[in-house]
Amino acid sequence: xxxxxxxxxxxxxxxxxxxxxxxxxxxxxxxxxxxxxxxxxxxxxxxxxxxxxxxxxxxxxxxxxxxxxxxxxxxxxxxxxxxxxxxxxxxxxxxxxxxxxxxxxxxxxxxxxxxxxxxxxxxxxxxxxxxxxxxxxxxxxxxxxxxxxxxxxxxxxxxxxxxxxxxxxxxxxxxxxxxxxxxxxxxxxxxxxxxxxxxxxxxxxxxxxxxxxxxxxxxxxxxxxxxxxxxxxxxxxxxxxxxxxxxxxxxxxxxxxxxxxxxxxxxxxxxxxxxxxxxxxxxxxxxxxxxxxxxxxxxxxxxxxxxxxxxxxxxxxxxxxxxxxxxxxxxxxxxxxxxxxxxxxxxxxxxxxxxxxxxxxxxxxxxxxxxxxxxxxxxxxxxxxxxxxxxxxxxxxxxxxxxxxxxxxxxxxxxxxxxxxxxxxxxxxxxxxxxxxxxxxxxxxxxxxxxxxxxxxxxxxxxxxxxxxxxxxxxxxxxxxxxxxxxxxxxxxxxxxxxxxxxxxxxxxxxxxxxxxxxxxxxxxxxxxxxxxxxxxxxxxxxxxxxxxxxxxxxxxxxxxxxxxxxxxxxxxxxxxxxxxxxxxxxxxxxxxxxxxxxxxxxxxxxxxxxx
Length: 612
Fold this sequence. Notes:
Blueprint: H1 13-29, H2 33-46, H3 51-63, H4 67-80, H5 84-96, H6 100-113, H7 118-130, H8 134-147, H9 152-164, H10 168-181, H11 186-198, H12 202-215, H13 220-232, H14 236-249, H15 254-266, H16 270-283, H17 288-300, H18 304-311, H19 318-321, E1 342-346, H20 351-357, H21 360-366, E2 370-375, H22 380-383, E3 389-394, E4 406-409, H23 413-416, H24 436-446, E5 453-457, H25 467-470, H26 474-477, E6 486-489, H27 496-504, E7 508-509, H28 518-526, E8 530-534, H29 537-544, E9 549-553, E10 574-578, H30 586-602
Parallel strand pairs: 1-2, 1-4, 2-3, 5-6, 5-8, 6-7, 8-9, 9-10
């Protein structure tokens, strides 16, 4: 082999070195790194200053994971001639050795020398991903595709980054392109399935994940993701099989363990679910989602003490933590005295959570605190009048805050006040009463109060992760509309099909164009006798105003509604209607219809429009 190559320094030497280089490359591709090193040494003996040989030596060391030697040889070549090819070798060695920032600088220099080289942009994109600089990496892969439109791997990586950034529709475009170029590419199918699942296009997601399992059946992640799509479709028993298959391939993975526990929770196998969450936490204590989900299950089962503590792990979950500003002062969780102190209470989760936990603001003020409440703009007019609020500010970038001593997330107030199952602060109504003038205006819009007035909310925010389980269509709710009552829509931004159906129904009063903020909705709610709603912010608003509120719940409800009861410790005027194991709303609505009919029968004729 290499030792048979002519070494005499004559006119044939360049050809001999070229032949030797070809042999070295074959050794590297075949993983014969010792032979490659010996070949490089032979070539250097023929020409000690040959830069291509130095570069090949660096490549061989990189593939052999001898990164320090690789950096040394690549740097030696670059000092003599900083060619993009040599810079690429050096950047690759640095990146593989974990010296990412140095690698990015080297690739940046290479791109500057040869900006039309798609491979260089690809390499820099990979390094930027490793550095956690996803937006810059995305630009690199997009530029790679501009230079090389047939690069399906670059399209896949661009889609992967966009998925991580939550830009699902854009990600889908790149995954579609990748699959056009790389038919039956298992990873792209897996990722497109995840994107389609996030977009709630579950059947399409299932087709992709099924194909990925056929192409790569021994991949634990593929099995786990297929379980996730089945789970989203409500096929829980099948999802459980795939999560378990993932764990057989690769035991003690925190993510599939957490997913398995979530299915067990929905199957009401709570003890197994808690044990599985504990196993996930032991497998990876840094996987905060397992602790978070365990806390929600503990709350659902009434173990508030453990649940409140566990929910504080949300600061380690990016999608949850980013909802809370980065305050400079200390967080208050009930330990320090707040007498004479200024405390910022800031919204950190949804509108419903904020309304529910606003009940703690008067308690905080009663301890001598000056409370500054920071909430989403739609809540400001409503909560600025809440007892104990000194100042209410919109939660917007750039909102100027006065000096303060402590800050506290509003969802952490139950922990700060050591709330247990038995001491929930549950007054019948704790929100300020609606403005009398607004109430009169709504009464005028509604007309004579001659029949029972029932407010309706049938769907929540479509971006909510569990929306496909909690929301229903207005058409489904129509099975109760023949009751002798006045039905009033409290629905904001109805979905297109619901909006069309609403326009067709003359038996539903729709004045939603006047519900411009929560104070207007509160005034309208105060004119109604009953609110019938799915689990949305309006449910919390009506209940916090002390109005009779009937809430339709999915089979596995949010933690605050607990289990196996039709009342709730947080809201004395709430009545809960729960899905059975059939997990559908038709039977619930039939029960609601029966209860409404019975209610009307028991109300004296003269009182049918005066509340319950």
